[in-house]
Design a protein that fits this description.
The structure is a homodimer.
Chain A lengths: L1 H11 L6 H23 L5 H11 L6 H12 L4 H23 L8 E2 L2 E2 L1 H4 L2 H22 L4 H15 L4 H11 L6 H27 L3 H28 L2 H4 L14 H27 L6 H11 L3
Antiparallel strand pairs in A: 1-2
Chain lengths: ~300, ~300
């Protein structure tokens, strides 16, 4: 299948990724793409709105959050099918945040993943509404499509709102904006990343585990795992900005250098940042052990997060 | 109490509103204000974000949606306390929609209810995020604060997302934008209003009834009631734009005249619009009868919606 091959090629050249993980990631990505686009296609909504929602939802992301949710669910004996609605909803929340982030009043980005951003492809008003639409629809999908008890559904909705809202991702956005024109220290940097990126990653891991049937203790250990995973993700982002391949990461290298934004390499040097990342990877693996899933695919995914080349 | 008197004065001069309804509305408004601001105050979020969310949430709205939800709940024997979390959440969704509507890329309004709009008072990025924050927080409040069964909570979340999202209010926004530069006929006009305003009003009525313990049949009749109530609201909005008191409605009279936007008075003449409104009021009252609440406060509220002077 051509499309599946294309997906595979997206992961193939990534350093240190084993062939079986490659296959795992590309298969999951393909299945999640199908699910997300399926949910948008079946919406009874104005065509232009659907087109704008679909445009960003299919704009070639790696689906790391939904894949992480699936992997976490599978680690406790669940299946991809069980998490699909929650995983698609989470990816929609991530997509909405990218659309709003790219707006002229926010980061003012014209290109994302090699394609025009939503407000360039459509217009600013449509981009704002497409983001609003994706965010709102995500809650509907969990409420109406997720095949778990209503008690769990309510809890998964509460946690998603908590992770994505004014205590979570939206807070991270605000702090990130405020930090742009001043130097942040390591602690402030971690706070911003934990809110802006980490909270949704944590949701992916804990929601997957909850749907898969993990115990409360196991979920508590996974929260710690997810905390480090978020930091690993961010350190690697900063490292790629210094030494990545612009063609692979889809943006020019050194863009962090030209603004005042604090990054790990700026604070610790490139060597120090790599060391910090290895420390986080060790801590993440330790948490997986405590959560009783030290030999699951989550270990490979942790390595992948830390060594991805895009 | 001074604040309560202030609230009362907001309703007092409204035509044809009985003294007891005035008292009812102003008391409920006061209680809803307290609840909404309370929910925002207790958020652990960056100060600037909270300030922006609070600014628009307390910007002097009449709280028609939450009051309607309370009235509907009480009509079936429930209490204000029972609906408070859902009513506050609904008002937050309404507030978010106003913040995003006012943005330069949308309606580009600098003044709302006599005060600078959110993006003027703060900045555009903060306004976008304050809107995102209110929308997301609303789902968290229903999930975690509403004291009804989890089955009902899931259903109330699903319905709110349905009413506010890409099939509902967001769809109405998109259609409204598309209609701005061409003439819409009565049917298109009603579709836009039904989505843009009507769906949240319907939610107010049906969610209140569900929380209060109405039967499925009663809720079906209330959906029809809410449909007409939404149209009554909109016709009166259009009529006020022609013959309202600019000081009371908080914006210049005749602003619809200067753009191409379709309105009831433009399509039917002022007399025709008033006639149409009376027809809708009759139909709304008939639906209340079918829902078994023909002598409830909802009847007075219907009259109030149709004859408000602001």
């Amino acid at each position: 299948m051509n499309k599946a091959k294309l997906y595979l090629s997206l992961f193939r050249r990534t350093n240190r990724v084993t062939e079986s993980l490659e296959k795992y990631l590309s298969e999951k990505q393909f299945q999640m793409d199908e699910a997300i686009i399926g949910y948008i296609k079946k919406l009874e909504a104005p065509e232009r709105l659907k087109a704008a929602m679909k445009y960003s939802a299919e704009a070639g992301g790696k689906r790391l959050r939904p894949i992480l949710m699936a992997a976490s669910c599978e680690s406790y004996g669940g299946t991809l099918k069980m998490v699909t609605p929650a995983a698609a909803a989470l990816e929609m929340v991530h997509t909405y945040s990218l659309i709003h982030d790219d707006l002229p009043a926010m980061d003012n980005d014209n290109i994302r993943r090699g394609k025009p951003t939503n407000h360039i492809q459509f217009d600013e008003a449509t981009a704002i509404l497409a983001g609003d639409g994706l965010l709102t629809y995500s809650f509907e999908i969990i409420a109406s499509e997720l095949a778990v008890s209503e008690t769990k559904r309510v809890e998964l909705i509460r946690q998603l709102a908590d992770a994505a809202g004014p205590k979570g991702m939206v807070a991270g956005q605000v702090l990130d904006m405020q930090a742009e024109d001043k130097k942040a220290d390591l602690e402030q940097l971690e706070q911003i990343h934990t809110l802006k990126t980490g909270r949704l990653l944590r949701y992916a891991v804990t929601a997957g585990a909850m749907i898969g049937g993990a115990t409360a203790d196991q979920i508590a250990s996974l929260q710690e795992y997810a905390y480090y995973l978020g930091l690993i993700f961010q350190v690697q982002d900063d490292i790629l900005d210094v030494q990545g391949d612009p063609e692979l990461i889809g943006k020019p290298v050194g863009s962090d250098e030209t603004n005042l934004k604090s990054t790990y390499p700026k604070l610790l040097g490139l060597g120090g940042a790599i060391q910090q990342k290895e420390l986080y990877i060790q801590k993440a693996k330790q948490s997986l052990k405590e959560a009783g899933v030290e030999s699951s695919v989550l270990v490979d995914i942790t390595e992948y997060f830390g060594n991805r080349d895009r």
